[in-house]
Amino acid sequence: MINKLVPIFEEEKWGEFIDKVSLVIRPPAIRLKYEETFKGYPNIPPQPYEEIINITDIKDKMEIPDLDIFLFLDQVIGLLPNNLYWKLINEGWQESHYKFVSRLVYLWKRIDLSKEKFYPEDHPKTRIMMISPSDKQFSIVRGSWLEWVWRENTRNGKKTPYASGWIEDVYSISEALSEYSVAVDLFLDQKLMNTIDEPPKNVRTYYIDIPPDLPKIGYTRDQSVTWMGKPIIGNMALDIRRGEERVINEVYHMINYTPVLRAGWSRVRSILVRSKMEGGNFFLIKTEKGTALFTGIGVRGSNVGTFKFLADFLPEDIELYGVPLSGYVRHWDITGSVHLDVVFTYLGDLNGIYYAVIDPMRIGMYSILRYDRVNESFEVEHFGAVAKKYGIVLDEAPRRGGSPITMANALNLGKGRLVVDSFNKEMNRYLEREFGVDVIEVDIPHIEAGGGGVRCATRELY
User: DSSP E strands: which ranges in 90-239?
Assistant: First the structure.
């Protein structure tokens, strides 16, 4: 992909099309909505959709003759920090935008992804990022809990969501991480300035301006992936979470951690498909037998555009697998598996054996899809055979008395250490007893009420 983008800049082909910004942001796309096939319930949680563009429309309707120019502009706009994005929308191209493009291409020209070091899920963590919205964002949820896929009360009966509760949960995680010398970069909405208690000593705080319609940006796992030293920005599957990606761009630029790519449009034969890529859906696993990337295919799971995007830049020795997940129509917090990390706990290397614990009620444990890069197609394989291929031993998680949202959702610090929701007593004791894992329990009722766990609310930085 990068090899195609750099010449567009060097040959200055893109310059004459910079007035097409609005069309690149809102192209002539066809939206295929899942809820159109449902019975017609009066109220259902938000459902995803597929977006496609007929490639002929790039030329005919947008008057951009070269597809690579469109993809170049899409990458540039998709990687703009939030402040530069809105400056572009309101004022057009400025000197700051040209400087941004030059720096981005400078990075592209010097990166060799085939030689990058890729960090697996169980690699030791030393630095974690978290985000806390304020009540400026949370107020939009109250009274519209179903629309935002949020429960009205925490499991201990408190109303949600409120910044005070979220901060309390974030501090609980931070304090636990401090015991293991893990630093925390905490990004707070500006409305929280001078309103919160002093954070734990391992926390460095930053203040950012978060738009008021992004209350779920605190689930910092989802907007990007950091398998290597340069983040890859994803694409959120639901309308209610679109825009979080631009804020994450800004966050990364604040700490000089420049993103290198954005999961945007991918060509699939005669159409472009908008990739759906959320970080909670991914596990990069590396053993002595090879490296594999597992991603969930479900209600907010990766689509064919995502696999095409990943195959374009990841080294060929990283195999790509899609794991089927259960969905939901009405009861999101009972039956659904929004992401792979709510049904799959990767323990990693424990004394030379690699373990993973799964919830077979909500994961397609007998079949898995391997992406064939050459033919751009999927091959059905046996999940057990794939696990054996990489030397991974599978186990079933106990489900009694736990939260279906956080039971499997664990932040793997490496070296057999997992940060988990304290509510899941049976699961936590099982991990200690059966695997000798160092279980680090934190109390996160506010984070859990919004549909996430410890892994959802954290993003490792390498």
Answer: 127-132, 183-189, 203-208, 224-225, 232-233
User: What integer pLDDT is reported at residue 333 of this predicted model?
Assistant: 66
- For the full predicted model, state whether its pTM sits above 0.85: yes
CB 31 within 8 A of CB 49: yes
pLDDT, tens digit, 9 for 90 and up, residues 313-368:
999 999 999 999 988 877 776 777 899 999 999 999 999 999 999 998 889 889 99
Share the mean pLDDT of the chain.
94
Q: Tell me the pLDDT tens digit for each residue of 37-87.
A: 777 667 788 888 899 999 999 999 999 999 999 999 999 999 999 999 999
Cα 375 from Cα 197, distance rounded (Å): 55
Sign (positive or negative) of CA dihedral 49, 54, 60, 64 = positive
Q: What would you report as the CA-atom Rg of the chain, rounded to the nearest whole angstrom?
A: 21
Q: Which residues contact 309 (CB under 8 A, 6 or more apart)?
A: 1, 263, 264, 266, 275, 277
Tell me the domains of the chain and their CATH numbers.
2-114 (no CATH), 115-460 (3.75.10.10)
Write the pLDDT tens digit of every residue in 157-175.
999 999 999 999 999 999 9
Instruction: Return the C-alpha torsion angle 183, 187, 193, 196, nearest 10.
Output: -50
**Residue ranges with strand state E in 223-352:** 224-225, 232-233, 261-262, 265-268, 271-274, 282-287, 290-297, 318-324, 344-350
Across the range 91-107, mean pLDDT stands at 95
Question: Is the separation of the CB atoms in 173 and 130 below 8 Å?
Answer: yes
Query: Rounded distance, CA 420 to CA 400, Å?
Result: 16
Q: DSSP for 287-299?
A: ETTEEEEEEEEST
Sign of the Cα pseudo-torsion (239, 245, 250, 255, in order)? positive
Distances (CA, A) of 416 to 144, 191, 287, 413, 436: 40, 38, 15, 7, 8
The bridge status of strand 203-208 relative to strand 183-189 is: parallel
Structure tokens at 122: 């169980």
- What is the side-by-side strand order in the sheet with 290-297? 282-287, 290-297, 318-324, 367-372, 377-382
C-beta separation of 277 from 309 below 8 A: yes
Give the residue among 353, 343, 371 at the shortest CA–CA distance from 453.
343
β-pairing, 183-189 with 232-233? unpaired
Residues 6+ apart with CB under 8 A from 12: none
Which residue's structure tokens are 């830049």?
Answer: 313
pLDDT band at 229 (very low <50, low <70, confident <90, very high): confident
